[in-house]
Amino acid sequence: MSAPAALRGAVGFLTRLPVGHDEAGWEAFRAAPWTFPVVGALVGVLVALPLALPVGAPTAALLFVLAVYGVTGINHLDGVADLGDAAVVHGTSEDRRDVLKDTTVGVGAVLAVALVVLGLGTAGLALAVLPVGALALVVAAEVGAKTVTALLVCLGDAPHEGLGSALTGPNGDRDAGPVLALALPVILLGLGGSTTLDAVLALLVTLLVAVLTGLLVWRWARPNLGGVNGDVLGATTELARVAALHAGVVAWTQF
């Protein structure tokens, strides 16, 4: 499968940008996890644009949240909701897996989604008053979130047939190398030519926190949900993005 086809498929699957959907693009993408961080950089640049508008921090933060879900869609939030309900279940791993199949929205789902959206909005508020580093941090967080999602695709196993198995099936441990090799140079592009040590360290912290967050989700999902399914991948992206943004703001302002 060609790299252009894989990238087209990745943009079509990971965003709502009008690039079209076809079987060739999907097949190329699902066997090319290296495309995740590349698309993450594109998404990061697009969703950071509202933070540069002269509209005041609260409005910029709201526009930032709308941009994130306007560009990426809300499908990943469904994973957050399902994992939220599963996390509050008192029972066996089988009970938690049954909750994922239940279409009823519980308190755990509502709380989980609310916390993610609140976390994204407050991160946007902090970024809006930090215009110099906003673009770099948003790009780094999005690349980090997509990178760790790709790592789960490479390292994880799906508990059943579905989206998880469609992505994990063609990939293995060896495919994690190219993902990691692309992540660092891609986030450094967000610096826009500034290569101060403090800025580079802040972006590294952002990337590292995103990866650690995703790995923690994976560690919880293996015994409790049986592995990596579509809900786990979606929730990983959302949780890693929020955690990375907050860590990045702290690092940028403290270094």
TrEMBL record:
- Report the main location listed first in the record: membrane
Q: Does the keyword Transmembrane apply?
A: yes
Any one GO biological process: cobalamin biosynthetic process
Q: Where in the cell is it found?
A: Cell membrane
- Pathway given in the UniProt record: Cofactor biosynthesis; adenosylcobalamin biosynthesis; adenosylcobalamin from cob(II)yrinate a,c-diamide: step 7/7
| Enzyme Commission number(s) | 2.7.8.26
Q: Which UniProt keywords apply?
A: Cell membrane, Cobalamin biosynthesis, Magnesium, Membrane, Transferase, Transmembrane, Transmembrane helix
The reaction(s) annotated as catalysed by this protein in its Swiss-Prot or TrEMBL entry are: alpha-ribazole + adenosylcob(III)inamide-GDP = adenosylcob(III)alamin + GMP + H(+); alpha-ribazole 5'-phosphate + adenosylcob(III)inamide-GDP = adenosylcob(III)alamin 5'-phosphate + GMP + H(+)
Question: What residue ranges are annotated as transmembrane?
Answer: 36-69, 105-128, 134-155, 176-193, 199-218
Q: Which domain of life is it from?
A: Archaea
Q: Which GO terms describe its cellular component?
A: plasma membrane
Keyword field contains Membrane: yes
What GO molecular function annotation could you give as one example from this UniProt entry? adenosylcobinamide-GDP ribazoletransferase activity
Q: Which InterPro entries match?
A: CobS
User: What cofactor is this protein dependent on?
Assistant: Mg(2+)
Q: Membrane topology for this entry?
A: Multi-pass membrane protein
Give the family from UniProt. Answer: Belongs to the CobS family.
Q: Main role?
A: Joins adenosylcobinamide-GDP and alpha-ribazole to generate adenosylcobalamin (Ado-cobalamin). Also synthesizes adenosylcobalamin 5'-phosphate from adenosylcobinamide-GDP and alpha-ribazole 5'-phosphate.
Protein name, please? Adenosylcobinamide-GDP ribazoletransferase
Name the lineage: Archaea, Methanobacteriati, Methanobacteriota, Stenosarchaea group, Halobacteria
